[in-house]
Design brief:
This protein is mostly helical. Helices cover 44% and strands 5% of the residues. It is globular.
């Protein structure tokens, strides 16, 4: 944000790049890991506390990486943004949901995965706060041209392909039926 407000301020841009480079150094790079593309929420804590990977962190970091890419045109920031989007797509498909989801049903993101021990631990409770990840998915779709990122965002928003999103009754812009 600071670098976008002052794009000609070399010191601010250097700080933004330094922070982004540190975040990238924390990104999970093992493609077989359930946390691939995410970052540990508390990397300074001892294991297993340093192995929690949250959707909200990926959403904020992914959007920031694409913003920094816009300023620098350095592909490493776009790649990092795409990896965060990959992590979000993975979190949308986490196992062991607390409730059954019929096939084809829209869905949000698991809140986090703990990648420690022989099996990952998934928390697939859904929270509105994880919708803050949608801009990162949108930017990933635009940057890569791959539709699965936008499909994941649409599903999280509660929108099925080709159908308008559901809205509260009455829908904004529509008149409510007269009470009978």
């Amino acid at each position: 944000l600071l670098s976008r407000a002052a794009p000609s301020d070399a010191q601010v841009l250097a700080k933004a790049k330094s922070l982004a480079d540190w975040v990238i150094s924390l990104q999970q790079t093992n493609e077989s890991s359930p946390a691939y593309g995410g970052v540990p929420s508390t990397p300074d804590l001892p294991p297993p506390a340093n192995r929690y990977f949250y959707a909200i962190d990926a959403g904020f970091c992914g959007a920031a990486m694409f913003e920094l890419y816009d300023l620098t045109k350095d592909e490493k920031y776009a790649r990092a943004g795409l990896h965060f989007a990959d992590f979000l797509v993975n979190l949308q498909n986490g196992p062991r949901r607390p409730y059954a989801r019929p096939a084809g049903m829209v869905d949000g993101f698991c809140e986090f995965v703990v990648d420690a021990g022989p099996e990952p631990a998934w928390n697939c409770d859904r929270h509105v706060k994880t919708l803050s990840a949608l801009p990162a998915l949108r930017r990933a779709s635009i940057h890569s041209g791959k539709s699965h990122y936008e499909a994941a965002a649409a599903s999280a928003r509660g929108r099925r392909s080709g159908r308008p999103p559901r809205c509260p009754r009455p829908c904004p812009g529509r008149t409510a039926p007269a009470p009978t």
